[in-house]
Amino acid sequence: MSTEEKILNAAARLLEEHGAEAVTTRSVCQAAGVTAPTLYHHFGDKNGLVRALVDRGIAEFMVMKRAQRHSSDALTDLGQGWRDWTDFGLERPSLFRLMIEAARADPSVTRESFELMRGYLERLHGEGRLQVKPQVAADAMWAAASGVQALFMQGMAPAQIRSTADFLYQAVVAAVLKPV
């Protein structure tokens, strides 16, 4: 394991165990067994370290999203993508909050994720199952996801986030799909 990975792993552990305020240069150096000049050499400063944590989190998230297997049913795939996204946030809430902040500062970091979700909706449209245009459905789904992100940012309890996320997903799906 490289020194950089060792530092990032220590910072990630502190982040998830104790929150963002626990990620100080001193605590990360102590947890990683390195000196402050070593941390500064690799990341510049604490902000650089946090950016690297967020970048790594986004990269891991996108690897997971790209690896999602496609079934023959676009609705199943859309639902799985929603659950994977929610699970990622619930499993790593402190990192997820930092990722949300990064996405709000630079929306381009979410572009690929949006396009993957939109692809499922395009498939539903191609199957004649949408009652709205794919872009309207994608915007509605994205808006619902933004609402769930607000719950994460407010520190809502995981069970409440899960139930609200499930409800919002079902509500948007019911609104955009043609009645059966």
Characterization of the model:
The chain folds into two domains: 1-44, Homeodomain-like (Arc Repressor Mutant, subunit A, Orthogonal Bundle), CATH 1.10.10.60; 56-176. The mean pLDDT is 95. It is built from nine helices and no strands. The protein is mainly alpha-helical.
List keywords for this structure.
2 domains; TetR family transcriptional regulator; 9 helices; DNA-binding transcription factor activity; transcription cis-regulatory region binding; Tet_transcr_reg_TetR-rel_C_sf; mainly alpha; Arc Repressor Mutant, subunit A; 180 residues
What value does the average pLDDT take?
A: 95
Using the CA coordinates, give the radius of gyration.
19 Å
Tally of helical segments = 9
Tally of domains? 2
Please trace the helix and strand order, writing H or E for each element.
HHHHHHHHH
Relative helix content: over 70%
Poorly predicted ranges (pLDDT <50, ≥5 residues)?
Answer: none
How much of the sequence lies in strands comes to: under 5%
General shape: elongated
Q: Mind summarizing the main beta sheet?
A: none
Structural class determined from secondary elements: mainly alpha
Terminal Cα span: 53 Å
The tally of strands reads 0
InterPro entries: Homeodomain-like_sf, HTH-type_TetR-like_transc_reg, HTH_TetR, Tet_transcr_reg_TetR-rel_C_sf
Protein name: TetR family transcriptional regulator
Domain HTH tetR-type: 1-61
Pfam families: TetR_N
